[in-house]
Specification:
Helix content is 50%, strand content 4%. It has 680 residues and is mainly alpha-helical.
């Protein structure tokens, strides 16, 4: 037998006679049996410490029930352990574990009996007792496991396995008669299971199990605060309603409950939704008290009466559905933009980041004089140097850069829309000033402002936003440019003086060791000197820059420019912006082309249809008609050199209702030059 086992048993490429059934030969049978029982004892101990125990069984009056259920559960695992090999199974039949299990499920030894073997001899034979394992199998073969766990102290559960007992008579006490009038399912909250992902083969779950598993899943996801702790004390109305619905009524799935709780906790923590809702509820209560006082001035109003919690939940839902949630998300996105963190939440969700250009690029404030001392101190050059991350305070702040993003994709999409919206709102006034500067300077330079604006890159727009004058209304850009041109020669002269002084000192110091070379004159080099540059006369310049006069009404120049509010911190570059962030910045920059199209191309058109309603809307929006320029408007005009004396005038055509309204109309096509030629 041993040779056969040695021939078929091969472990790790070596021929050996040892296997699970045969322990080392140096052990005697008693030691081998003891070793097997020791291994089984360690296995059973591991089962008892690692297996799951429902919270419902933690109550003191359920301890006996849980001990019976735990013994039956561990017995099934031990039976699998006995199937490793017949020798191990035979050694485990007399283990002390089976005696403990029998004492729990049959404390009165109701089914314990000895039997005598059938024998032809007339001599009396002592009865043979079955071993503990066989006795356990006899009990469980004719018993109901559910009844044994629910009623472990009675003997009616035995011999009822696989049988149905029906009787119309049940004895009960007077106190139990009152409890029969209430549906017992509502005592423990036993309701049909809807979460088949967590409990795939369970028809119904109780309140205790649902609460326990909700807390376990919340601990695994590390969102204990989002569900309000183990008692589920949540302040948010929506999270509270969905948690109570799942725990008490078994509505929904645990994954959906945790998703909503996580989103609501993020909104409560990182936005001002909680403060907005509390203020709205307080205002509603005040209006109710004021209406009561107005209806009956003599009535005494008790301010200590608390409102109904259900009414507050319904009112909070109505207020949030009215748009206060969008306001809170807009405020969150606006604060990020003002702090100089122009990264879209969509890029953070999808992980769009460049290794050489991280997100926390330094941002500067265009108008430092509007900040206080502490804020100005944070504007010192600091950022990523030599591959190191910024650790000192600055903009954007580390709390903004490292702040958590929305935990779910639907909420992240809402914040993405809010980011795009706030980028347009915050940058729109500055973009209008950039358009105003382009128009004013282009009219003086006889250049096409539309072409100049189309050639601007995102970095050029970012540099314009870093200018102080961009965030001031009514700046005289021509005066600023003249002052800048006057400052350039002065700076160059100062630079040349410093250079000549340094070169003179170096020449005097090295005069003793320097040999004077020939003078490099024009005669020495045998070349002719270049003629002086030709200066264009005003007439030639005027003839060169001939173009049609464009009168555009722009914002007037103020003696004291007005500050735009709010002014965000602007990043030092736009190259670090990922895809969605760059698209949001580009959408905010579209106003450049829109304003230029409305104020330049529209004014160059020879035929302009101006309905009365459109004219009123244009005046209200600040886009003024050419023939209706106000007195305080700053109009920049370039008078061209014309070959004839005919003055081109804008032809205005007003549309009026005619007969045949609603019929098919053929539109005429014509060019601007045809209209001007007809006037000649």
């Amino acid at each position: 037998m041993s040779s056969t086992i040695a021939e078929v048993s091969v472990y790790k490429g070596k021929l050996t006679s040892r296997n699970w059934a045969w322990l080392p030969d140096e052990l005697d049978p008693d030691t081998t049996l003891l070793l097997l029982r020791t291994i089984a004892t360690c296995f059973i101990w591991n089962l008892s410490t690692t297996n799951y125990c429902p919270d419902q069984w933690q109550a003191q009056h359920f301890w006996h029930n849980w001990m019976v259920g735990k013994a039956l559960r561990d017995a099934q695992e031990v039976e699998r352990f006995m199937q490793i090999c017949p020798q191990w199974g035979a050694a485990m039949e007399t283990h002390m574990f089976w005696k403990v299990v029998i004492a729990l499920i049959d404390p009165h030894e109701t089914l314990y009996s000895a039997h005598s073997p059938v024998c032809n001899d007339s001599a009396s034979i002592s009865p043979i007792k079955s071993n503990p394992y066989h006795h356990y199998r006899n009990i469980t073969r004719y018993s109901c496991f559910v009844c044994q766990i629910n009623t472990p102290n009675t003997i009616q559960v035995f011999r009822t396995g696989k049988r149905i007992i029906t009787t119309p008579w049940l004895n009960y006490c007077t106190s139990y008669e009152v409890e029969l009038q209430i549906n017992p399912a509502y005592h423990v909250g036993c309701i049909k299971n809807e979460d088949h992902e967590l409990w795939p083969n369970v028809q119904a779950t109780c309140r205790s199990c649902r609460a326990e598993w909700l807390w376990r899943k919340a601990c695994v996801a590390n969102i204990r605060d989002a569900v309000g702790g183990q008692q589920f004390q949540v302040d948010d109305w929506k999270a509270k309603s969905i948690i109570d619905g799942f725990v008490n009524l078994s509505e929904g799935k645990i994954s959906d409950v945790l998703l909503v709780a996580r989103d609501r906790y993020w909104i409560r923590t990182h936005t001002k939704l909680g403060d907005m809702l509390s203020q709205a509820l307080a205002a509603n209560r005040y209006e109710g008290l004021a209406a009561t006082a107005a209806a009956d001035p003599d009535a005494e109003i008790d301010l200590s009466i608390e409102e109904d919690e259900e009414d507050d939940l319904e009112l909070a839902q109505l207020i949030e559905d009215g748009g206060i949630r969008e306001l809170a998300l807009d405020d969150w996105a606006r604060n990020r933009i003002l702090d100089g963190f122009w990264i879209s939440p969509a890029d953070q969700w999808y992980g769009h980041v460049q290794s050489d250009l991280p997100w926390d690029v330094r941002a500067i404030h265009p108008c430092l004089w509007t900040l206080d001392g502490n804020a100005m101190a944070e504007q010192e050059p600091e950022g990523i140097e030599d591959g190191k991350q910024r650790t000192e305070p600055g903009h954007p702040s580390l709390s903004t850069v490292r702040g958590p993003i929305p935990p779910s994709q639907p909420l992240c999409e809402q914040t993405f829309d809010a980011h795009q919206k706030q980028m347009r709102i915050v940058l729109r006034p500055a973009m209008k000033n950039i358009v105003r500067r382009i128009v004013i300077e282009s009219n003086v330079d006889a250049a096409d402002p539309a072409i100049r604006a189309s050639r601007m890159t995102m970095d050029d727009v970012m540099k314009e936003l870093q200018e102080e004058g961009t965030w001031l209304n009514g700046v005289d850009w021509l005066e600023r440019r003249r002052n800048a041109r006057h400052d350039v020669p002065a700076r160059e002269e100062a630079t040349n003086d410093n250079h000549s002084t340094s070169s003179g000192s170096s020449k005097s110091s090295d005069e003793s060791s320097t040999v004077t070379g020939p003078v490099l004159s024009t005669s020495t080099l045998q070349i002719t000197s270049s003629p002086p540059p030709m200066e264009e006369t005003p007439a030639e310049t005027e003839t060169k820059n001939v173009h049609r006069a464009v009168d555009i009404a722009v914002m007037p120049v103020f003696n004291s420019p007005r500050l735009i509010h709010p002014i965000p911190h602007v990043p030092v570059m736009a190259a670090h912006l990922p895809y969605f962030s760059l698209e949001a910045f580009r959408m905010a920059s579209i106003i450049l082309s829109e304003e230029l199209c409305n104020n330049i191309v529209h004014h160059r058109c020879g035929v302009r249809l101006v309905p009365p309603s459109a004219a009123v809307a244009a005046v209200a929006a600040g886009v003024l008609h050419r023939t209706q320029v106000p007195d305080d408007a700053d109009v920049h005009r370039v008078d061209p050199v014309r070959e004839d004396d005919n003055n081109d005038e804008v032809v205005e055509i007003e549309l009026e209702d005619v007969e045949g309204a609603g019929e098919e109309i053929d539109y005429l096509e014509y060019d601007d030059d045809d209209v001007f030629d007809s006037e000649e």
